[in-house]
Amino acid sequence: MMFKRNLLIIFIVIILAIIPLVVKKDAEFGGADGLAEEYINTLDPDYEPWFNSIWEPPSGEIESLLFALQAAIGSGFIFYFFGYYMGKRRRMAD
Amino acid sequence: MKNKKIFLFLSIYFLYFLIPNNVYAMHIMEGFLPVKWTIIWFIVSIPFILIGIRRMNRICKDDINMKMLLGLCGAFVFVLSSLKIPSVTGSCSHPTGVGLGAILFGPMIASVLALIVLIFQALLLAHGGITTLGANVFSMGIAGPIAAYGIYKLFSKGKKSKSLSIFLAAAIGDLVTYIVTSIQLGVAFPSEIGGVIASVTKFLSIFAVTQIPLAISEGLLTVIVYNLLTQYNKDELQQLAAIRGDK
């Protein structure tokens, strides 16, 4: 029951992410924070960022590697957590 | 009955495509807050972090199950803030994931979790920044979690659906984060015509509108994790409810 309900919710989340791709086919789906940056430039043309990132991923590939790593660390722990408590409960039930 | 609800939901969702923004939404970029505001947001955020660390130590000390649960909340923030999801505005943004931690452990501890993820992203991903850390901790780690926690408390009174209160808390907490980001930028960069209000409105259209569908997704994902917790971690949830003083 709970399992089916959770599956349904996951399905809705996936649909929510796919719809924009289908409906806005021509959009760029950029991930940079560029527009806010551009807008700041129109508000205050003299504004210079007074500090630059200490280190930037040298390429899009490296950046996606690090983002994937972040997601992997997180989901790794989440599934360890539920596996651990699922097993613990089953053992207590026996 | 259920179909009707889904239909209503989808029609509202499609209406939303009419908003013609092609914009991006994320944390405030490195160096993009004037020095004055950088310092102000650091000063505002530091007390929350210190209280959060103290509470964390108190709740988790010598309690392996609480440590595990805290780890789960941190891991959830890690995953959700790494997922850049396309939005109906034709750009991408990512959820924050702090709602879960705020609901379970309270907003102060969620601040600490947000801080850890923001440092990771600022140092390794050039996403957000060290100088804007104070401001970003305030929006993602303080304002968002306080909103989530408040809404959860408000809705969990009486006999309302638990899932609904979790959903609303996480979704609105997510939105509030980006609303606060817009206000932070608007206050720091008032428009020549229309002043602070005009630029806040503009930043809202950049940051907050993109976030709406992602906020819904975050709410739904938080409900899934909570559902699983009610199945496997009843005791820990009760323990936390006692700490929060739920009735």
Question: Could you name the CATH topology of chain B?
Answer: Arp2/3 complex 21 kDa subunit ARPC3
Give me the number of helical elements of chain B.
9
The biggest beta sheet of chain B, please? 2 strands, antiparallel
- Biggest beta sheet summary of chain A: none
Strand element count of chain A: 0
Overall residue-averaged pLDDT value of chain B = 89
SS strand fraction of chain B = under 5%
Number of strands of chain B: 2
Largest interface: A-B, 59 and 70 residues
User: H/E element string of chain A?
Assistant: HHH
- Uncertain regions spanning at least 5 consecutive residues of chain A: none
Protein name (chain B): Cobalt transport protein CbiM
Organism (chain B): Caloranaerobacter azorensis DSM 13643
GO molecular function (chain B): cobalt ion transmembrane transporter activity
Main location (chain B): membrane
